[in-house]
Amino acid sequence: MRLIMFDMDGTLIDSGFAITNTINYVRENLGFERLEKDYILEKVNEPHLNSADFFYGTKEFTQQQTELFEEYYNEHCLTDLVLYDGIAKLIDDLKGDFVLTVATNANSQYAKKMLDHVGIGANFSTILGYDSVKNPKPHPEMVNKILNKHSITNVNAQMIGDSHKDILAANSAGVDSVLVNWGFSNHEEGAIETIEELEQKIYEKFK
């Protein structure tokens, strides 16, 4: 049995407006100014950035920040949500040959809601979010938890993501990974540019 793990935001779906508007909602309620969308998305994907400190000025996320974030995100996470061109066909092509899963630093419940909204949620055997682990990506806990759940060894799995957080998590778990360049980051090297290239790389690994 072979398994593919997908990151969600910036890999399967373009949720940039929902993410940036939610962060800015929290910031405004805490008395901070709004930040530009592209700047937020660039920082969200930095693997070693302390997001609580950078966006809200605290060492860890507080209960107030979490409640504000979830309050806004739950209501607006489907706003302007777009499935990247070619993803629906890719999932349809892969689902007969692989166990398909999602490893996301979003909340598991919201992730399922979003993936169902764009019509691909039912194709994933597992949708695992930050609330299901102690350490989200770039820590490998999420990757290892999915492998263990499906009793699949790391050599029979592959991670797909648009962030170095995804790649670091996969590498630490001994899982092959593919970095894509249609999401929230603009990688100068080491990333593939099209869905067609991605499908080719997946089948090349497992041929």
UniProtKB/TrEMBL annotation:
Q: Keywords for this entry?
A: Hydrolase
Give the Gene Ontology MF terms in alphabetical order.
phosphoglycolate phosphatase activity
Enzyme class, broadest EC rank: hydrolase
Q: Does the keyword Secreted apply?
A: no
Q: Which domain of life is it from?
A: Bacteria
GO biological process, alphabetically ordered: DNA repair
Question: Part of which pathway?
Answer: Organic acid metabolism; glycolate biosynthesis; glycolate from 2-phosphoglycolate: step 1/1
Catalytic reactions of this protein: 2-phosphoglycolate + H2O = glycolate + phosphate
A single GO cellular-component term from the record reads:
cytosol
Q: What is this enzyme's EC? A: 3.1.3.18
For this chain, the family text in UniProt reads: Belongs to the HAD-like hydrolase superfamily. CbbY/CbbZ/Gph/YieH family.
- The protein here is known as phosphoglycolate phosphatase
Native source organism of the sequence: Poseidonibacter parvus
